[in-house]
Design a protein that fits this description.
There is one protein chain. With 251 residues, the chain is α+β, with helices and mostly antiparallel strands. The chain is 46% helix and 16% strand. The chain is built from 9 helices and 8 strands. The strands form 3 sheets. The protein has a 3-stranded antiparallel β-sheet. It has a 3-stranded antiparallel β-sheet with strand order 6-8-7, with helices on both faces. A hairpin with a 6-residue loop joins strand 3 and strand 4. Helix 5 crosses helix 8 and helix 7 crosses helix 8. The two termini are 21 Å apart. The relative contact order is 0.13. The model has no long low-confidence stretch (mean pLDDT 91).
């Protein structure tokens, strides 16, 4: 399944839009030929297993945003799902790897994708800097040089010869990207990790402190009987198979 890249951009930082777009995606995945005959909310609830009140609240919003429209009336009313993709292939994103097993899982998949795109941007910068300093034989070096100049011009890089440094992604940053609470961010990361879409790497600094006995001084995160710890932001990576298919979004 493909959706417009603009739809994903719309979801960034807005949890309500995430739920609406996720419902449009889920309906598209479960209703054959994008048409449901003899439409009413009870029938739609039975087909999709989405709670009745959720459908009651969101169906008018889907219609207002032109995700759906109706044909006929009364017992002959037909729900028609409008296309979520663009005629311009480059303006679409492949979401075939989403978990379509339930509406909740589609929401989590969509939020996972937003996190993946944050990491993907980092992966792309890393890739460009590597190709700029040590290009492979089949590298389009002119295109790489052009991209590096563009990144410097836009403030992404400080200089063309900058060395990539990994600082991780904080929970606070991801809270802004999703527009959700820290608890939701952590659940979404766990969902993405369990589905094999991202790999989480934990980092901390351990300092031996004999007899500290669980006392936590300033600038430390936690302590044990004889050690002090500073927890650093997690870093993430995208599995190679998924990364290679997604880099085309940027390059």
């Amino acid at each position: 399944m493909y959706i417009k890249q603009k739809l994903l951009d719309k979801c960034r930082g807005n949890k309500d839009d995430q739920k609406i777009v996720a419902l449009a995606i889920y309906l598209k995945s479960i209703i054959k030929k994008s048409r449901l005959k003899r439409y009413n909310l009870h029938r739609l609830c039975s087909v999709t297993r989405v709670p009745y009140n959720t459908l009651k609240n969101y169906m008018p919003i889907l219609e207002k945003n032109k995700f759906i429209h109706f044909e006929g009336s009364g017992k002959n009313k037909i729900l028609v799902l409008n296309s979520l993709s663009s005629r311009n292939i480059k303006g679409n994103i492949d979401i075939s790897f989403f978990d379509f097993s339930s509406y909740k899982h589609v929401i989590s998949s969509l939020r996972s994708f937003i996190i993946i795109r944050v990491q993907l941007r980092k992966e792309f910068i890393k890739y460009v800097l590597k190709e700029n300093s040590s290009p492979k034989p089949n590298t389009d070096y002119k295109a790489v040089k052009k991209m590096v100049k563009k990144m410097v011009r836009n403030g992404v890089l400080n200089s063309p010869n900058q060395v990539y440094e990994e600082y991780g992604i904080s929970i606070e940053r991801l809270k802004k990207e999703l527009g959700c609470s820290g608890v939701t961010v952590i659940k979404t990361i766990k969902f993405a990790v369990n589905h094999g879409w991202i790999i989480k790497h934990r980092h901390y600094v351990q300092t031996y402190a004999n007899g500290v006995n669980y006392y936590v001084p300033e600038n430390f995160t936690f302590a044990t009987k004889n050690n002090l710890y500073v927890v650093l932001p997690n870093t993430y990576s995208i599995p190679p198979a998924l990364l290679s298919s997604m880099l085309s979004l940027y390059y």
